[in-house]
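Q&A log
Question type: sequence-to-structure
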Amino acid sequence: MEPRCEQMAKPRSKRLALVWALVAAGITVFVVANAHLAYVAVSSQPDCVAHLKAPSSDANTFRAAKSAC
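Response status: OK
Response body:
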């Protein structure tokens, strides 16, 4: 006797539903993480750090192009 199509469709259908649920969960996590990164990037203001403010002739020193402090 061959298995009926209806009997084989149920396990496959459940696996397919599980796969789609996992894909949806992965996409949701990706979108929420990126939204959080965008929110933090826009809402945070970093503190000023110590840096050279005057040009230097030494090639190994760097300074900010335009200081905000």
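Response note: Helices lie at 5-43.
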